Amino acid sequence: MTFEIDAFGTLVIAVFFLFIGRFLVQKIAFFRNYNIPEPVIGGLIAALCAYALHLFFNISASFSAQIQNILMLMFFTSIGLSASFVKLKEGGKSLVIFLFCVAGFVLLQNAVGMSLATVLGLDPLIGLVVGSITLTGGHGTAGAWGQVLETEYGIQGAIVLGMASATFGLIIGGVIGGPVAKFLIKRHQLAEQVAVEDNDQPAHADSAAFEYPRKTRLITANNAVSTLGMFALCIYVANGMTEFSKGQWFELPTFVWALASGVILRNILEHVLKVNIFDRAIDVFGNASLSLYLSMALLSLQLWLLADLAGPLVIILLLQMLTLALFTIFVTFKVMGSNYDAAVLSAGHCGFGMGATPTAIANIQAITNTYGPSHKAFLIIPLCGAFFIDIINAVVIQTILKFF
What we know:
Belongs to the glutamate:Na(+) symporter (ESS) (TC 2.A.27) family. Keywords: Amino-acid transport, Cell inner membrane, Cell membrane, Ion transport, Membrane, Sodium, Sodium transport, Symport, Transmembrane, Transmembrane helix, Transport. Its main location: membrane. The chain crosses the membrane at residues 7-25, 40-57, 69-88, 94-113, 125-146, 158-181, 218-238, 250-269, 290-307, 313-333, 377-401. By secondary structure, this protein is mainly α. It has one domain (67-401). It is built from 17 helices and two strands. The longest helix is centred in the middle third of the chain and has 30 residues, at 158-187.
């Protein structure tokens, strides 16, 4: 029996489990000590509850995809609207270096997946599915490429396999980022745990997007309305560009158009029209949509798809997890400077290396809430994870498929 949950019901359930996640992080030292994000804990509890209902009572629920999609687009729009060119210059060389790290890992991820698939007697393209298609690309990329692999390359069940692998990645990406960063911080004595700050104090005026998510932002109704108008305009343009670019060489996912629209609108208003952008409102809507989207994404996961995975595929996924952890510890951390910022960037890399950009942001928020701010991480991770990583991944996948 499947229950259809409308948008309001989906929102209520997501908020409920988000608060459960927050409560558990506050009460359970393990989650707090290893910096597991609150939406990940709450969403995982929700997914486990859904799995139990499906397993024992054959009950499942279908949640509103529309509101989840809107929150996702709001999240990526907020990244774009926060991307002032003045602030982006601060990323500079570090952003380029980090992109090389990310590109290197995408290649390694596919090499590991395809090699293990071959050794285990599977089609090497299945290793590609359990590689960057799903783990770096996420559910959207898994669906798109899964259809191509089924129709053009004869890989039966590629879509189901891709969704299951992306599900595993989304969970693990939100679980391992905190422990990896904590290990690096403790081992190299990079920072001490900071005292819990008073949430009624406002965030610093120069903070990057998504920094200080627990701090109070003082906004007015006028600021909220004008900011929502900017969000709506960016998403409207993004939907239009998605339709216009279909089948064209510049075809891109809607969330990329939303991010790009935000960047363009922000900098036209700020630098051409000299309009003062109210970043506090953007931060509020961005952080709220991030938490709710991540909770809903995990809420909608069908964990029973993972239960159907064959043993060899589970082995590949576990080794992919180990590969990512080792890569971020021994490559990302060292290349980015072996300092506190590098440790936080490593947590973010874990987030979108096996999950998604929202997971990466949640990871670095969990770390900075415990050990203090990392301005560089909040400049680099959103841009890399939301925009550049998809371009890099698409080029790598298309190049590999040319040889098959």
